[in-house]
Each structure stands twice: as structure tokens, then as C-alpha cells.
Amino acid sequence: MSRTSLSGVLAVLVAAVLWGTTGTAATFAPGVGPLAMGAAALGVGGLLQGLIAVPALLRERAAVGLHTGTILAGAAGVAIYPLAFYSSMHLAGVAIGTVVSLGSAPIASGLLEMVLERRRPSTWWVLAAVLGIGGSAVLCVAKMHYAPADLMRTAAGVGLGLVAGATYALYSWSAHRLMQRGVGRAAAMGSIFGLGGLALMPVLATTGAPLFASTQAFTVGAYMALVPMFLGYLAFGFGLTRVSASTATTLTLTEPAVAAVLAVTIVGERLPLIGWAGIAAICVSLLVLAVAPATPPAGDRAGTAGVAPGPGGTVASP
């Protein structure tokens, strides 16, 4: 793995670890509903991304204007994702909600790349995804074992988690697509997250009153917006300039593992031995990604539509 790819992998892993804290952090503001928490976290975080990207957006407004459809698709993903994600955790629990949301994202991301870019994932990527998703499924089974009476809530949480996974893959692909087409990292992330954050403001205005009901609730909301959402997505955007969207979403399977550990050690959710086996499978999937190529050799991708790599075969940095 090249130094550039390794830096991208590490940046995405940092983002995933930060994101893994969100479910546990939300439990410290029990009076705040999932829609309000999601809108505050990614709405405010997204607007901050947009604000710091204003110079880049002005500088690259011509290039950005050529990809309005991709930006709108990504912004829609940003707006829907946190509402589905936090609702999934609210209904099914921190561990299972995070696991399903992030565990389903690599499949959705790979499908997007196969359908829209005619890109064939490598055998190594498929192996890593299968291991990670299999580990995530084991975590779900472990949770269901301890809460059989919550079948309907859990099923609803799983469904919303699948929606979250699909929309997460959508905005990841959109950002990566913009970067492939020559839009700088700051402008790509700023346009998608700024517009998505703006779309979440009506939701926050309607549901966000509990965030101001106590200092603790406000602190949790501020942490969500500034640390995992703002700083986390800065790291994620950096990583997307160096690894593919499907690799990035597979690397973020770290998040459910972190979330599961925190759910057990801090929130008090129970996780049997088989659940820890699921976390081990996720770790193995990350190891596979770290030491093996995520896509077929360049010669096998020569016919891929819409790919515009920068010098040396990597996506050009801003």
C-alpha cells in the first residue's frame, strides 16, 4: 500500500472512531429525540463544513456548477442519513442501530460503483466486505438474543438502519465522484454537507427545543456537531481523496465495533461472547483492507466510465 493510500486509510479510521462515540453520547441527553439529535449533529456540522469551504467554493464555482445533480444527490443523502441513523439507534439500541447502518453501507457503495461507474470490486474488497458485514450480522443476532420481546422495535430500527446505510453510501459516493471530476476536497465536501445541513435546519427548528432545556443536553448536541460530525467529516473528506468510496465505507465498519464496545462498557447494553466474535470479524476485515488492494489493477479498470484520476493514478488533492 502506498503512503498516500495509507494516509487515506488512517484518516477514515479516525473519522470512524469519532463517529462510533455518537450513539453513546446521545444517551447522555435522554430527553432529546432522535430527529433533533440527528438534525443538530449533521445539520450544524454540515453548515460548518459549508462555511469553512466558502473560499474554495468561490474559487471553484465553475467546476462545482457542472455537477449540480451529484451535489443534490449527496446533499439528500446527508439530510436523510442522520434522521434514519439516530432513529435506528433509538429503536434498536446503540449497538445494533450502528451496526446495521454502517454494515449495510459497503454493499450499497459497491453497488453504486458497479452500476454507475461499471467498476468491478476486487476479490480482496469482496472478502473484506463479507467479513465485516458478517461480523455486523453476528452483532445483531447477539442483541436479538437478549431482547426477544423488542422484536417490532428492533425490526423497525433495522429497516431505518438500512436506509441510513444506503444514504451514507450515496453521499460518500457523491463526494468521491466530485473529487474524481476535479473538484477540490474542500469544495466537494462543503457543497454537499453545507446544502445537506441547510436542509436539516427546518427539522432542528421544529424538534430542537429539548437541546436547550439543560446544560447537559446542549453540551451533548455541541459535542455531536463539532467533534464527530465536523472534525470527523474533515478527516473523512481527506481520506476520500486517497481511497475509493467503497473502501472508505468498508473501513468505517470500525464504527459499529467502537459503538458496540462503548454501548457495553458505558451504556450498559449486554453483549455475549458471540457478539465479541462479530467485532473480531470486523477487525479482520480492516486488516484485509489495510494489506490488500481494494480495486482491481489499473489495467482491469481501463474501461470504467467517469473515472478521472489525478497524476499518478490517484485522485488529485485540492
What is the average of the pLDDT values?
Answer: 81
Tell me the span between the first and last alpha carbons. Answer: 22 Å
Largest sheet data: none
Share of helical residues:
over 70%
Q: What shape does the CA trace take?
A: globular
Number of helices: 14
Indicate the multimeric state. Answer: single chain
Radius of gyration: 19 Å
Low-pLDDT segments, ≥5 res: 297-318
Q: Please state the structural category.
A: mainly alpha
Strand content: under 5%
Strands, count = 0
Helices and strands, in order, run as HHHHHHHHHHHHHH
Give a written overview of the molecule:
- The protein has 318 residues and is an all-alpha fold.
- Helices cover 77% and strands 0% of the residues.
- It has helices spanning 3-19, 22-26, 34-52, 54-59, 61-65, 68-92, 94-117, 123-146, 151-180, 185-207, 215-240, 245-251, 254-267, 273-291.
- It is built from 14 helices and no strands.
In terms of topology, how is this protein built?
Elements: H1 3-19, H2 22-26, H3 34-52, H4 54-59, H5 61-65, H6 68-92, H7 94-117, H8 123-146, H9 151-180, H10 185-207, H11 215-240, H12 245-251, H13 254-267, H14 273-291
Helix pairs in contact: 1-11, 1-13, 3-6, 3-10, 3-11, 6-7, 6-9, 6-10, 7-8, 7-9, 7-12, 7-13, 8-14, 9-10, 9-12, 13-14
